[in-house]
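User: Sequence recovery, please. Input:
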């Protein structure tokens, strides 16, 4: 057939100039003509598979001669379009890379940069005149194969050069796409980073830190209220589509609100929320797949991942002000096993108590502790009560320590961790009082009254004045209704004095109660990530 003939590369290729070895010998004598000719032929955009194979075979025979003096030539070879070519080209190129990094480690960084630069789809621009009429991601159907070949290359390089991980991490960071790039670009890059962590485990913690740091940048750039406003407006324009159906709305930059090519996920209208949602889904899918082997939880792998993710949580999430969604990855991991949730709560509790920790981190730990207890439905009431039995006595001891001192007055700067711990207790009781009372109302009420919350709210530190108004009002309502506090007007107690700026979230740490309330992911979706990470999702 004519088509078969056209698609079959010629057995022999037309080339000009001598062999690579002869050309290098001529260059040593000052004759650069063939050297420049080789670079020119290698740069031909229409270069054929057979030509690439022929060149690579020659380069492999003289790789020991290709030192730093020939870096321009090597850079041309590294730009050869090997990805997506025939299997013969790919295998020859991988063999060349292996030989090159083994013989000339000076090119290790260049080889790593070449591979990592292919971790995201290329941009395709169509121009008329000097105007871009189309600028979109390349959705080549061979993308999964391309990514597989990139990882083959990295694994080979790592096998031949044991120090690869030390040089690779800065490149992974440097090549990370700007967070304003399309969600598809971010999705592919994050997925490929996480694949690297599977076969170069030494880099896992650093890779997770890099990804989560980038996600935090997105998270803090789009206030929750702004996301809600945009999504609510889009819902009204969607002619009655329910809010639950829109929780997964994702928009790829300026694309239409619904992406038919990805039926398992809807599109968020807010561009930042959409990008963050996409990255969250990849991360949660990774967490699920790493922790489960053949559908069953692998305890040792889960513990190891927990340690890495907790380290990242302490390093980048806890100190970040106004993060609303990224911390949800810890919530999700802890849902796998009660022991993880209890370990996480214990970690936060120790952080809150530690006087050597900066107050800003102690306050953040208390805030996360409260919202985790309040919102994690998988936590049994016994665990919630065990935490309250730690927090409430600590508050009473703190009040004892201040009663006779000169600082026993309402001041956020002096008593920040105390106020955040108070709010954690109040917020927990708002959401969990029913589960504490159900089953045995008399016993549950006795437990709550035994916490002696009156003393806390009536103390000179006046915590209700500092707590968020929504928490104060809801706590007042449920304690009055359930008779948890004896004949006490919480609202008037909390508002006796002028409002503090802290009430408006202008404190060092925003005591936003819903630290684990994600407007990007419903628990339903998080429980079943749409893709299996260790299988190709592309």
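Assistant: Recovered sequence (538 residues):
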């Amino acid at each position: 057939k004519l088509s078969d003939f056209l698609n079959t590369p010629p057995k022999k290729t037309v080339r000009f100039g001598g062999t690579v070895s002869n050309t290098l010998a001529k260059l040593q004598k000052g004759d650069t003509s063939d050297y420049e000719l080789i670079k020119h032929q290698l740069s031909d955009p229409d270069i054929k598979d057979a030509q690439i194979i022929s060149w690579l075979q020659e380069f492999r025979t003289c790789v020991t001669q290709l030192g730093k003096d020939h870096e321009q030539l090597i850079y041309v070879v590294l730009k050869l379009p090997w990805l997506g070519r025939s299997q013969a080209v790919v295998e020859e190129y991988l063999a060349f890379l292996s030989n090159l990094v083994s013989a000339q480690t000076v090119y290790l960084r260049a080889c790593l940069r070449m591979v990592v630069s292919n971790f995201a789809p290329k941009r395709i621009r169509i121009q008329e005149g000097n105007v871009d009429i189309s600028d979109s991601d390349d959705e080549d159907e061979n993308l999964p194969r391309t990514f597989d070949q990139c990882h083959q290359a990295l694994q080979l390089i790592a096998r031949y050069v044991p120090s690869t991980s030390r040089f690779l991490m800065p490149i992974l960071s440097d090549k990370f796409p700007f967070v304003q790039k399309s969600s598809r670009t971010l999705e592919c890059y994050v997925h490929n980073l996480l694949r690297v962590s599977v076969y170069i485990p030494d880099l896992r913690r650093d890779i997770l830190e890099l990804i989560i740091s980038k996600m935090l940048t997105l998270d803090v750039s789009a206030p929750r209220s702004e996301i809600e406003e945009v999504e609510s407006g889009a819902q009204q324009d969607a002619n009655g589509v329910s809010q639950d159906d829109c929780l997964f709305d994702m928009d790829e930059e300026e694309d239409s609100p619904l992406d038919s090519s990805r039926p398992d996920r809807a599109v968020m209208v807010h561009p930042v929320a959409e990008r963050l949602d996409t990255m969250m889904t990849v991360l949660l899918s990774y967490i699920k797949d790493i922790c489960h082997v053949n559908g069953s939880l692998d305890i040792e792998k889960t513990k190891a991942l927990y340690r890495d993710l907790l380290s990242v949580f302490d390093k980048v999430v806890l100190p970040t002000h106004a993060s609303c969604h990224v911390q949800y990855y810890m919530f999700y991991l802890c849902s796998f096993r009660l022991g993880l949730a209890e370990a996480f709560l214990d970690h936060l509790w120790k952080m809150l108590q530690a006087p050597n920790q900066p107050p800003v981190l102690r306050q953040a730990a208390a805030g996360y502790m409260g919202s985790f207890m309040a919102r994690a439905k998988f936590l049994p009431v016994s665990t919630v009560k065990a935490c309250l039995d730690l927090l409430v006595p600590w508050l009473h001891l703190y009040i004892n320590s201040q009663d006779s001192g000169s600082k026993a007055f309402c001041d956020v700067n002096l008593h920040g961790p105390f106020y955040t711990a108070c709010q954690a207790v109040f917020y927990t009781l708002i959401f969990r009082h029913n589960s504490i009372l159900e089953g045995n109302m008399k016993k549950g009420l006795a437990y709550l009254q035994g916490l002696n919350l009156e003393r806390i709210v009536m103390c000179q530190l006046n915590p209700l004045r500092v707590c968020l108004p929504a928490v104060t009002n809801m706590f007042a309502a449920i304690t009055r209704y359930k008779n948890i506090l004896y004949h006490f007007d919480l609202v008037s107690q909390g508002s006796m004095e002028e409002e503090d700026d802290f009430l408006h979230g202008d404190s060092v740490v925003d005591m936003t109660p819903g630290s684990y309330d994600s407007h990007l992911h419903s628990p339903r979706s998080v429980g079943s990530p749409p893709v299996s990470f260790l299988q190709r999702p592309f």
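Residues 352-515 form one domain.
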